[in-house]
Amino acid sequence: MADSDNPASRLYVQLETIRNKVQTTALNNAQGIKLRAVLAGVVGCKPTETANLYLFLVDLAKLAQKSVDSIQTVPHINHKTYIAPLQKLEEDLLSTTIDLSAKTFTTRVLSDVILLSVRACADMLSTVYVDTTISNNEINGLQKDTDSLLSDVLKVNLPPDLKEFLVDCLEKMRQALLGYKIRGNQGLKEVIESALGASFLRRDEIIEQTKDDQEKRKTFERFFALIEKATKILSFAEKVKTLAAPAITLLLPPK
Fold it and tell me: pTM, whole model, 2 decimals?
């Protein structure tokens, strides 16, 4: 099933991925694997990143709620049949502890009935939503660019407030990319818009700091290039015209 802006489709893909990972892992360690370890593999973070793992569960619950909201807009169907399993799933996800046995989690929360119900919702909503998904390769490329720049920004000699600004923007970009499979285009779009807006508010300071310092200029050129790249990828996926490129040229002094 294709991942798209269809909330039930995104939810189903993630739930199926979790259950498949648990089943694969269980071949080697039937009871010992914690849900924490499995979720870390799905999210792409370390098992010790507790906050990100719980955020992932919360985001899954939000997708269940969005699926309910979307199903309610579809006419001429038995809404209760679709909604009841989604509401149970939402409750179960929000009450889950990540140190639960992964096998116990799949038995309690990801039963065949629940997965089939989510799949049925996804199929029902497929007639409403258009696929605007960014490819995994493009998301992975943006993640690598973000991580590389974030590492380098920490080494650059910048005023503390300006360095904090860059780190904050890049960390939000990183979180949006990590959570892309759950939050979709909207999460990434919000981060891009926020970064651009904050950059324009700091335009004078950025120009002052970069006009005579090539290292600082290169750092901001890479930052704006990342924003531009993400904007173009997003615009292509949604088939809309991008406006970021001409705007970004106003944020650096002339060469």
Answer: 0.65
